[in-house]
Write a structure and sequence with these properties.
Two copies of one chain form a homodimer.
Chain A (H helix, E strand, L loop, with lengths): L8 E3 L2 E3 L3 E4 L14 E3 L2 H19 L3 H17 L2 H11 L3 H24 L6 E3 L12 E7 L3 E4 L13 H8 L4 E4 L5 H17 L7 E4 L3 H10 L5 E5 L2 H13 L6 E4 L5 E4 L1 H20 L11 E5 L2 H15 L9 H16 L4 E5 L12 E6 H6 L11 E7 L2 H10 L3 E7 L5 H14 E6 L38 E7 L19 E4 L2 E4 L1
Parallel strand pairs in A: 5-20, 7-8, 7-10, 8-9, 10-11, 12-13, 12-17, 13-16, 15-16, 17-18
Antiparallel strand pairs in A: 1-2, 3-4, 5-6, 6-19, 14-15, 20-21
């Protein structure tokens, strides 16, 4: 059964065509526009979605853990039930290949299911109980703590993960798991995909008997609808994945509100690889070809794309460079997500090639589609890198820069010089141990994830993942946007002092009816 | 043995007299100035303290949990070893009585010891391990997560807790526990107290063989030294307790940095008491006198001072009002912390008394000291309260406003109307259950701590305490500044992918050498 795409927004239980300027999805491989047109939302649509979300909050956050988990699982099932139509539409709108999108759908569904497990587990509630000590002077009251949701969350769909970081992606899943209603601003590059997924979630809300305001989805421009959404008093937090410029605009709006709110913007990272000398001498060619595979994966459109390679000058680097160049020259450029992203990539590569002291190592092959990106590898030396901040700018796509160092001390100097990153990678063997030990403390300060002998593309959705890092990788390094820990972003603690048992939330009642891990008088116990 | 107070700052291991405008501490009871003069710090002093803190960070955060805990305990012991001189000086500088300051010293020492326990326990590390799944497609890498400190933290001493929220107070203790060096901006109202405590901490740093930059303390104005401190690139987070104006100025500076940083500012709260009708009918006089005791405690200079009382009009409220008025008229105003605070209180009370629809219920007695605050109780009706935002302004000191409601629905309306609060209190009995159930979800959204049949002054330092709450109670509702959870404010997660065991931090090694609770493949386990 094929579902007709109507070009609609979802405001609570309704599907409504936005009244502002219509727009059409574009196939980046061909430049063709799709029917039907999508109506962009108005400020009134934002108002309605936010009011419904606020009205739903108390009811939704007080659903049982089981009910909330079942809702997340049903949303996942509804997305699977969309079948091949979802994959086909996402392929047409994103230019991404079928296998990648099928994998991404799997990740999307697994994220929802992981958060269902996290919800059932209840550890995120942070339940803590301190017993009354009436004999103490002064007496200690009975104190009990749990975390609750911050309130309605605005989620911005990302261009580069039309499923896994979009309408029902990681931000939405973690906010819903935390008990927060979600208002999504769908990304304009894949509105049809968004409508399909949005209706799947909307149907799950209805089937679970939840208040309609738990989920809404709007279309429109970030500068108008997006800004209005973040400025709305009902919204209490924001999840965003995209450009530094876009993220910082939302941060500014959130900070200027009468009540400032947190913004989790995942923005800009060049993900350095440090090739330590003994590992490089041992496996220069292998590392070089693996690096190129990581660089061109998904047309380089990953937040964790390896945009910087730091290595000692010499024969081993020469071998690495030769292998990388050869591998790159065999790579045919694949379709980038949008004409805008393709244009920005092209001009970014052009600009980098003209920077003083930067030389071209190799280019990939031109692709045959309209928005195919032609990969590029450049090189400079550490002295030049350290004095030109432009060499640290992220170029979204398959572009990377080798930084030649004259000494291992320069590795540390380059590392200290770097801005915050999502990832930092070390290639090493046993003989590189001392050099790695010198770099590690610096990299811990600079990055959310440190890898050894691997490539940063590929972000596992699990409990020990951190997809985050110091500014400008994100606007808030205290959390992760991927993995179980993402739920913590949308929670705040509430303490209950001397409440009669009938008024206490179930998570904090005597006898531990939910079977939670709880901190009791400072000790972690499970009933 | 009496320690001579030199009017110095502490920059790492040195004690240096600041070169900027000298100032003297003032006895708020008498208006007298103390010798010696304190030299305010310069921007160069800020620079030096921050550079030392940055240099100390990697070494300090990698001390063993035991070494860090022992340092906190030694700092506590050094503070106790200051003996009566510390209490005397704090009395002279703050106007607070001996018993209060001895109690506060106890709390200060207990906070340091609680965080020593939190550090030894290691639960704050959030250790999580996901095993490699090499057979899976795609293979899952080995992933391990722990939290590390954000970096050097700027702590602003609070006026109203010269010991427990000042140089070695809650913010300092929790930041040091998290592995973050601290640079304190001492409060200008108690510089001698600060010097004594600062030297106690400085000596503990030296005795434990820690890098000198772990702790520094500067004197000076918030607008100059404070702003320079928050703007310094080495500083990665800020802890502040004080006025809304002061807190927001730091928030703005932190947001405008090249690398924005989190600010934990605890600012403004009027701590409503909701007197539900059956409890009020039963115990009007008792609640009224207890309320006045809470209102005048410490001259009302608590963040949790009860500045708002919501009750149904009628005979029970009349009884409450009469009892409160009688109790208040017997209270002699005690010395406020500074001439500036006293002046702000006096003008705040005067302004509130002139607001339309506000009537005076009673005043306390004038005190005999220069800065004695004369307590005040006002009344208005809910309709008036809901339309005049000025009635919600915090008046720091013993001033409170009764809001008469015509119905229980108006309780909810007033609660929904309120800004974010540190606390919200319900007086209730069994017959008030339904009314309490209606208010609770609203109060959970508005406050960090909800109390039943108690008074909000008195903040327990424990695991289930939340001293925080939505804006403007704090600038960041996601945490607490009192209790074990305060350590979380200064941490961020780092994930390690496929690290050889020799490079892994001890907390994440196989065999769990630190004996931590760890999340292993999603399940909380202890080795």
């Amino acid at each position: 059964m094929t579902i007709t795409i109507h070009g609609e927004q979802l405001i609570g239980s309704r599907a409504v065509k936005g009244g502002a300027a219509p727009f059409r999805a574009v196939n980046p491989a061909t430049g063709e526009q799709f029917e039907p047109a999508f109506g962009a939302g108005t400020v009134e649509d934002v108002e309605q979605a936010c009011e419904l979300a606020a009205a739903a909050f108390d009811s939704y956050r007080n659903t049982s853990l089981e009910a909330r988990a079942a809702f997340l699982e049903l949303a996942a099932q509804h997305i699977l039930d969309l079948g091949p139509q979802l994959i086909e539409r996402a392929m047409q709108e994103s230019g991404l290949p079928q296998a990648r999108l099928e994998g991404e759908r799997g990740r999307t569904v697994n994220q929802l299911r992981l958060f269902a497990k996290v919800v059932r587990d209840g550890h995120f509630l942070g339940a803590a109980l301190d017993s009354a000590l009436p004999e103490r002077s002064p007496p200690r009251p009975d104190l009990r703590l749990r975390k609750i949701g911050l309130g309605p969350v605005a989620v911005f769909g990302a261009s580069n993960f039309p499923l896994a970081f979009s309408v029902a992606g990681g931000d939405t899943a973690s906010a819903l798991a935390a008990g927060c209603p979600v208002v999504v601003k769908a990304h304009g590059a894949h509105p049809g995909t968004s409508e399909l997924v949005g209706k799947a979630v909307q149907a799950a809300v209805a089937a679970c008997g939840l208040p309609e305001g738990v989920f809404s989805m709007l279309h429109g421009d970030g500068r108008t609808i997006g800004q209005a959404l973040v400025a709305h008093p009902a919204i209490k937090a924001v999840g965003f994945t995209g450009s530094r410029q876009g993220g910082l605009a939302l941060v500014r709006t959130a900070a200027a509100r009468a009540e400032p709110i947190p913004v989790y913007a995942e923005m800009s990272s060049i993900n350095p690889l440090f090739l330590l000398p003994n590992a490089l001498a041992q496996k220069a060619a292998q590392i070089g070809t693996g690096f190129i595979d990581s660089l061109v994966l998904g047309a380089g459109q990953f937040c964790t794309n390896p945009g910087l390679v730091i290595a000692l000058e010499g024969a081993a680097l020469d071998n690495f460079r030769a292998a990388a160049a050869k591998a790159l020259q065999g790579k045919v450029g694949s379709t980038m997500l949008t004409p805008g992203i393709h244009a920005a990539f092209t001009s970014g590569v052009e600009k980098l090639g003209k920077e003083a002291g930067v030389t071209l190592v190799a280019r990939g092959q031109c692709g045959s589609t309209v928005c195919a990106g032609q990969a590029a590898l450049f090189e400079t030396d550490a002295a030049n890198f350290l004095v030109n901040p432009a060499l640290e700018d992220e170029i979204f796509g398959s572009s990377s820069l080798i930084v030649r160092c004259a000494s291992l001390d320069q590795f540390v100097e380059v590392a200290e010089h770097l801005d915050g990153q999502l990832t930092a990678t070390l290639f090493l063997n046993e003989a590189d141990r001392d050099a790695a030990q010198a770099l590690l403390p610096v990299l811990e300060r600079k990055a959310g994830r440190i890898l050894v002998n691997g490539y940063p593309t590929g972000v596992e959705v699990s409990h020990a993942m951190v997809h985050g890092g110091p500014f400008p990788a994100t606007s808030d390094s205290r959390s992760t946007s991927v993995g179980a820990g993402a739920i913590d972003r949308f929670l705040r603690p509430v303490s209950y002092q001397d409440l009669p048992s009938g008024l206490l939330p179930e998570a904090l009642q005597e006898g531990n009816p939910l079977g939670l891990h709880r901190i009791r008088n400072g000790e972690l116990v499970k009933a």
